Amino acid sequence: MPHMLALLFLAFSVVGAQAESGASTARAIQAPAQNIVTSNILELITIPRSSTTSTQVAGLAKRAEDDNGTEAYLSTVQGRIYLASVTFGGTPYTVVVDTGSSDTWLAKTGFECVSPTTGTSVPEAQCAFGPLYTPSPTLIEIPGLEFNISYADNETLSGTLGYELATIAGLSIQQMVGIVDTAAWYGDGQSSGLLGLGYPTIDSAHDNQNISGYSFPTTLNYTPFFATLCVDAGIPAMFSLALTRVTPDNPTGGGLLALGGIPPIAHSPTFATVPIQALSMASANPSAETPSYQFYIVTVDGFSIAAIDPEGSQDDSRKLPLAAAPGAPTQNATATVDEDIGGPVQMIVDSGTTLIYLSDSTAATVNSLFVPPAVFATGPEVYVVNCSAVAPKFGVYIGGHLFYINPLDMMLETELAGTCLSTVQKAGGGLAVLGDVFLKNVLAVFDVGAGEMRFAAREDY
Known about the structure:
Elements: H1 8-18, E1 23-25, E2 41-48, H2 55-60, H3 70-73, E3 80-88, E4 91-98, E5 105-114, E6 121-122, E7 140-150, E8 156-168, E9 171-184, E10 193-196, E11 205-211, E12 214-220, H4 225-233, E13 238-244, E14 254-259, E15 272-275, E16 277-279, H5 281-284, E17 297-300, E18 302-308, E19 314-315, E20 345-349, E21 356-358, H6 360-368, E22 375-377, E23 382-386, E24 393-398, E25 401-404, E26 411-413, E27 419-422, E28 424-426, E29 432-434, H7 436-439, E30 442-447, E31 452-457
Parallel strand pairs: 4-10, 5-9, 20-29, 21-28
Antiparallel strand pairs: 1-16, 2-3, 2-14, 3-4, 3-8, 5-6, 5-10, 7-8, 7-11, 8-9, 11-12, 13-14, 13-30, 15-31, 17-20, 18-19, 18-24, 21-29, 22-23, 23-27, 24-25, 26-27, 30-31
InterPro entries: Aspartic_peptidase_A1 (IPR001461), Aspartic_peptidase_AS (IPR001969), Pepsin-like_dom (IPR034164), PEPTIDASE_A1 (IPR033121), Peptidase_aspartic_dom_sf (IPR021109)
GO cellular component, one term: fungal-type vacuole
Region (Disordered): 311-335
């Protein structure tokens, strides 16, 4: 009989499949877990790289298809990814931590490296993986299953699937893992693969079916890494992230990933609690045959935006009224809402995305309030700003609470001296995303069992 926890992710899939338009609230499987500090902690490091956002997320935000778009531009700036060490088959490997993907995969020894731009074979070193995975005696290969996934910037991976013994933060499980034997990849020289913490409905396992002489892949839902941990290791069905920015005193940045609890960091005692929204892909793509892709999506009430006078006074002249969510407490601050969506905004919470993506109008408002204002660069289609500019005071309203973004996180350096990339960009008509820029300012709790997310403000660090 299937364990109830093993089904908790799949229950969200059912809710999502029924959502014909917009996002619906994911059904809770359990009561909310307590915000208790856990010893199951994974230390993270961060290094420069463009985002690892899969095409499911990037496609919704309508930014992955353009080779000259924001994600491609990030490859020339200090976009960052977050890495952790996970042991597979008794050997530790460094992997990217990504809440926007469900798959966990490793690049295999002897894999074929393919150019993302030409599709031709190139030297293995060009894919720039870290140490490659050598199949261990504990690997159980699964005949007939294939692994295929596409990411932004034409990155693709394919291979096989198998069950491997994995150990993370002192917890050991037998987990289905993608074994990559062909990769079109822009690597970072350190990571050997990726740890996906998303729902199973965005996984990339395929069963090779053959009907009437025609072979085609059928997408399969399988129990992803975190759900397996809940079942086999017996931890509460929640994890939390406390990402840390790079500073002169902490050049590798990083942060903490806590499994089954929260990490021992300083944070506000007050949490904003909002339900996880289950989104049907049919909402974004009515022609999709299987409307079941799921992400961690929350409703954002609005945004507080105000220019800061370099002389020290705040300029209120360009702030717009906040459209508060029903039942939200009255706020004295003023703010702008996502006018393109028309009221409260559904936003993906994704550690695999560097920036914050908002509607075109909201992003334009935020960027106009830099002093001097940011400029929209055609070609790369991004907002750039003088690195000496004063960033606006920008906050995100969630669950009636306001979370400010530290001014240090409002721009990223580029290779052009004195030119920075604004970390608030337009989504181009797709769904909005709260990426690492937001996550570096909060303790984010993903309570999957209760179908809710909780956010607490971080103390300055």
